[in-house]
Amino acid sequence: MAEYNLLQKKILTDGVIKPGNVLKVDSFLNHQIDVPFISMLGKEFYDLFKDRQIDKILTIEASGIGIASLTAVYFQVPVLFAKKSAGSNMDKDLYTTEVKSYTHNKVNHVVASKKFLSEGEHILIMDDFLANGCAVEGLIDIAHQAGAIVEGVGICIEKGFQGGGDRLRAQGYDVKSLAIIEEMDAESGSITFR
Predict the structure, then answer these.
(1) How far apart are CA 128 and CA 134, in angstroms?
(2) CA dist., res. 168 & res. 152, Å (int)
């Protein structure tokens, strides 16, 4: 690749590769949030999807909330985040799905209140990472249960070598990732982008 984009450069300077194909970007994306930087990524997502009708952004807690919120500023729409458990203060009228977490190697029962997602709403699904695609598939399931229209999927970092994004694209979803990692090596610290 001749020139790296904004996110690829940040991954190369601040990302840390751990054994097991884990990329830590917690210094700027999914633990500590570099708000000015992530806001620039939000603008990039706006530019990618601005020709679509977007009524709401749907993400999953917790790491997707930052990028979804900073993107929503540009679209001027609300963000709905699916919760990984129904707390005692949530309505009982919920859309539910199961999502297997690659990072934590467990199945989460993910929920979203029916009062915040309606039939015919145009939805942009967003998340910080896409690996095997389970989280996005869960969010698509929730959107479909509501009768909402999935206009696209915005992902900060896609692990292309795990195939989730390619599978979703083959199903007809417009998946746009700002950085697609083709391979990475914890021992050498090298990352190859698609």
Answers:
(1) 13
(2) 11
**Cα separation, 31 vs 153, whole angstroms:** 22
Of the listed ranges 56-65, 86-95, 112-121, 162-171, the one predicted with least confidence: 86-95
Q: Helical H runs in 90-163?
A: 134-146
Residue 67: both structure tokens together:
């990028």
Q: Do residues 45 and 68 make contact, with C-beta atoms less than 8 angstroms apart?
A: no
Q: Is 170 helix (H, G, I), strand (E, B) or coil?
A: helix
62 preceded by a cis bond (ω within 30 of 0): yes
Question: Which pLDDT tens digit goes with each residue over 9-68?
Answer: 999 999 999 998 899 999 999 999 999 999 999 999 999 999 999 999 999 998 999 999
Burial of 29 (0-12, 13-18, 19+ CB in 10 A): buried
CA dihedral 72, 75, 76, 79 (to 10 degrees): -30
As a whole number of angstroms, the distance between CA 53 and CA 49 comes to 8
The model carries a pTM of: 0.93
Cα separations (Å) of 111 from 45, 56, 99, 128, 157? 25, 16, 10, 19, 24
